[in-house]
Amino acid sequence: MRQLPPLTVQQLDYLVAVADAPTWAAAAAGLGVTPSALSQGLRELERRLDLPLFERVGRRRQLVPDAAEVLTYARRVIAQTHDLNRWLDDARSGRVGRLRVGMIDAAALGHWPGLLQSFRQDHPDIGLQLSIAPSAELLPLLIRGDLDVAVVVPPPVMPTEVEWTELLADPLAVYAPPGITPGPPDTWGPWVSFPTSSHTRSLIAREVERLGARFDVVSESHQPEVLREMVRLGLGWTVLPVIQAELQPNPLVRARPEPLLTRPLVVARRVGSIAHPLLHDFIADLAHRDPEPVRKLS
Questions:
Q1: Could you tell me the residue range of the domain that residue 36 belongs to?
Q2: 0.85 exceeded by the pTM?
């Protein structure tokens, strides 16, 4: 087997930047280098690999299909380098450092708000940095090394860079606008739902259509509280996590008693990442502490 030639972190950083940026100039600006310096660094990377990484399509340069494995390797090295730099900064300063957690809103605000609060109180010497966003936004942040851990709804195929453990099955139910007497599934709708990029929406659409209902979405929002208000305004039906749809004092009323489906909530971390000292404790708390029931709004 041919030995891997010496590659620099800078060259790999250049490759990731060009793959992620909309233009070559934008990649150079994001790196703080000139376009010519970027081109020179990537030509040297191609020379060391003895492999062309780019091809011209019109006036643009784009990655060739054979570069996919190199890009995956580059992303992993860059993420682990960021991990190491952060760990070294914390070690030199004598701090434990921040624990960077990503959660979908149902996890952070519905199932485990008490855990987050108690974890902060039990570990006042660290900064618990919480990012609340949809799963499709959190997973790239995790892979890039911007998060230590994420609680998400898994996509149909989880990225190979991620290892994960299921935490719970989150029930979702059907809700109709006020004043509508629910009939059989083929009379349901139209719908207000999550955007098409949402993993949860894909699960909802499949189950609604399996029951014989049309899933015609007339309005979208990533925010469950916005979808709740759309239902109250009579804009459409929806399917939401029970823990968010049935908050007091004005819960939505289910169109049928039983949940439509359950979605898995998983805790995910990047394969091979340098773990924060408290990461294992945090994941153990998630896995072993019972989620909270539907809460009343104060």
A1: 9-76
A2: no
